[in-house]
Amino acid sequence: MKVPSISKAELMLHEASVMNPGLWVKHNQVAAFCARRIAERCSDLDNDSAYVLGLLHDIGRRFGEGDLIHTLRGYKYMIESYYVDSARICLTHSFPYKDLQCYEGINDCTNNETEFLSRYIKRIDYNDYDRLIQLADAISDPEGPCIMEKRLVNVVMRKGFNEFTILKWKEFFTLKEYFEAKMRCTLDELFRF
Ligand SMILES: [Fe+2]
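ok -> structure tokens follow
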């Protein structure tokens, strides 16, 4: 996979945390931990890649405040470094439901950027790493792993909801069931929520 080494990824996140400090850094570290723990239970997933993908999924926040645009900023930043698999995760992690409108929060992208994002998401077939980070994102509070329902409600409390919220939530529960079957254990058992 085209992803940075663990030490390089940790350096990139550290640099980003200096540029734009915030809870998002801890959230990414927790997502990396969760992604690795889940990958360890799945024989076809690489543990280190899972960790790195989790660690860098919100790396677009290094450039400062931003809502939807953080996905595209992260994508471009990773593409420039030729880490294409990490780049795609910067985009796909926010769209378990394949419609841009399912994003809670503000669309602070230009029309061209929105068009690019929309086409990219629709065109791509999600693989298990896309699915893994979508799930890890949804169980990673800055304080540590948490039950998915808590995180989903938190996001809605912060950003509001729209007519796609329930569809998106259903996708999250499908992801949870998918990985629980793959791991042969529940997330509750794995993380002892
Ligand atoms: Fe995230």
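The longest strand covers residues 140-141.
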